[in-house]
Amino acid sequence: MGSKLNSVIDALKRSKAKYEDTAKNDIMTALLAFPDLAPEVESFAFPNSKRVPTFRLKGTIPVLYKGSTYNIPVALYLSDAHPYYSPICYVCPTQNMMVKESKNVDAKGRIYLPYLTDWRYPGYDLSGLLQVMTLCFQDNSPVFSKSSDRSRQSATSVSNQTPFTPYPTNMPAGMPPYPLTSNTGPQAYQNYPSPYPSYSGGSSSQSNSMVGTVDATHLKDSMLSAIGDKIRQRLREKLETVYSELESVKRTQADLESGKQKLKQYIDDLNAAQTQMEATLNIYKEKKTTLSAVLASCGSDSTLDIDSVIDASTPLHRQIIKCYAQDCTIDDAIYFLGKAVKKGRITLPAYLREVRQLARKQFVYRATLQKGRQKAGLPV
């Protein structure tokens, strides 16, 4: 299986598959159920397209037909968008076989099934397609053996029964040999039924001994088997559609449940944020009421000293505040003296004299402020 996995990966790369991982998983699942298929790349033209390197699964699938198991050769061509587009499938008869036309197989061997028409991944996949093929071919074999002169001579010399054709050994290129479940020597070939139903073109040369072996019990068993296969096939077609729709509904339900949880989380977060904002708003309203009351009580009091309203907790901090206020006051005084000089309200000598005095005071205040901040442990 490891070599097949490498072959699948290599073939997908050569065919330029768009969904390599998904296609690989689908193909490997089909190969586990049908190991006689082999991956390869072939130049193939899809409808309304030119020839391109295309991934192909070619080999045989086991089909139970009228009580015997036959290996039907098929080829599946996968598009570069597999598994999201259905493959194109063919029956590949060998040199001693012919295609039998039916509602599911045309003269060129192309296979038509409702499973392909209704293809929709992941409800439809290669494993399910191959199983549907086996069920369909149980009712109507897609190939039959050619009659040859050699087989007629062999039939005349041995008996009047319809000749049995051995399993073909010369397969077309790329076709894996049919698996044999018991003896493989040439002497064992006549113990096997023909790998595909043999048609004699309406000849009635079968012997009476052959006819005598088919009694009512055999006919009853054959009819029961055919009816059971037909019922299973139709039931599978119905159930596959129902199962695919059910899976789609389940995925939609899972997405809705996930969205429901996210919406619930969003609502919880919004409710928590609203509660927090309402609490903060109540605090602000209380502060506003307090400030309004203070302003109302202070507005009518003309004897209130503004400088005494704000007071420091310690004498050192009180000195720091005083020096800072004096420093800012001197800055403002120097600024307005400069404007007065520009407007000619004071003379330049008077301006320089006042600025010199103010600068001396400001130096003292700033030195005291810096020393006080150092003592108080504040940044300088």
UniProtKB/TrEMBL annotation:
<dbReference type="Pfam" id="PF05743">
    <property type="entry name" value="UEV"/>
</dbReference>
<dbReference type="GO" id="GO:0000813">
    <property type="term" value="C:ESCRT I complex"/>
</dbReference>
<keyword id="KW-0967">Endosome</keyword>
<feature type="compositionally biased region" description="Polar residues">
    <location>
        <begin position="153"/>
        <end position="168"/>
    </location>
</feature>
<dbReference type="GO" id="GO:0015031">
    <property type="term" value="P:protein transport"/>
</dbReference>
<feature type="coiled-coil region">
    <location>
        <begin position="232"/>
        <end position="287"/>
    </location>
</feature>
<dbReference type="Pfam" id="PF09454">
    <property type="entry name" value="Vps23_core"/>
</dbReference>
<dbReference type="GO" id="GO:0043130">
    <property type="term" value="F:ubiquitin binding"/>
</dbReference>
<feature type="domain" description="UEV">
    <location>
        <begin position="4"/>
        <end position="147"/>
    </location>
</feature>
<comment type="similarity">
    <text>Belongs to the ubiquitin-conjugating enzyme family. UEV subfamily.</text>
</comment>
<dbReference type="InterPro" id="IPR052070">
    <property type="entry name" value="ESCRT-I_UEV_domain"/>
</dbReference>
<dbReference type="InterPro" id="IPR016135">
    <property type="entry name" value="UBQ-conjugating_enzyme/RWD"/>
</dbReference>
<dbReference type="InterPro" id="IPR008883">
    <property type="entry name" value="UEV_N"/>
</dbReference>
<feature type="domain" description="SB">
    <location>
        <begin position="314"/>
        <end position="380"/>
    </location>
</feature>
<feature type="region of interest" description="Disordered">
    <location>
        <begin position="144"/>
        <end position="210"/>
    </location>
</feature>
<keyword id="KW-0653">Protein transport</keyword>
<dbReference type="GO" id="GO:0008333">
    <property type="term" value="P:endosome to lysosome transport"/>
</dbReference>
<dbReference type="InterPro" id="IPR037202">
    <property type="entry name" value="ESCRT_assembly_dom"/>
</dbReference>
<keyword id="KW-0813">Transport</keyword>
<dbReference type="InterPro" id="IPR017916">
    <property type="entry name" value="SB_dom"/>
</dbReference>
<protein>
    <submittedName>
        <fullName>Tumor susceptibility gene 101 protein</fullName>
    </submittedName>
</protein>
<feature type="compositionally biased region" description="Low complexity">
    <location>
        <begin position="189"/>
        <end position="209"/>
    </location>
</feature>
<keyword id="KW-0175">Coiled coil</keyword>
